[in-house]
Design brief:
By secondary structure, the chain is of the alpha+beta class. Helix content is 34%, strand content 33%. The chain has three helices and four strands.
Length: 102
């Protein structure tokens, strides 16, 4: 199985970016505390204060689907609904990496 990357662009509700970042960080930390299939993630906060991009990498698409189906993830999504105007996740596989990007 190959790692799978999800890149998700979010439009955040006005004045909710800090709450969104905190909620994402808290949920990601809870996944990293135990084996889950999440390899890691990186959240980019838009300079406009209304957008964010989340890059998450999973051991496999099956691992991502297990997390997505979990009760914890469903609760997390329910909490985020008041913070997010829209999201657009897409699946990717790595084509190449250059430089010191990790």
């Amino acid at each position: 199985m190959s790692p799978i990357t999800i890149i998700n662009h979010f439009e955040i509700a006005p004045d909710k970016i800090d709450a969104f970042v905190e909620a994402q960080l808290t949920f990601a930390a809870s996944l990293c505390d135990r084996p889950s299939g999440l390899l890691g993630g990186r959240l980019y906060r838009g300079l406009d204060g209304r957008s964010a991009v989340l890059v998450s990498q999973f051991e496999s698409q099956e691992a991502q689907e297990r997390i997505r189906a979990s009760e914890a993830f469903q609760h997390h999504i329910a909490r985020l609904k008041a913070l997010i105007v829209s999201s657009s996740p897409r699946f990717y596989e790595e084509a190449y990496t250059t430089g010191t990007f990790s």
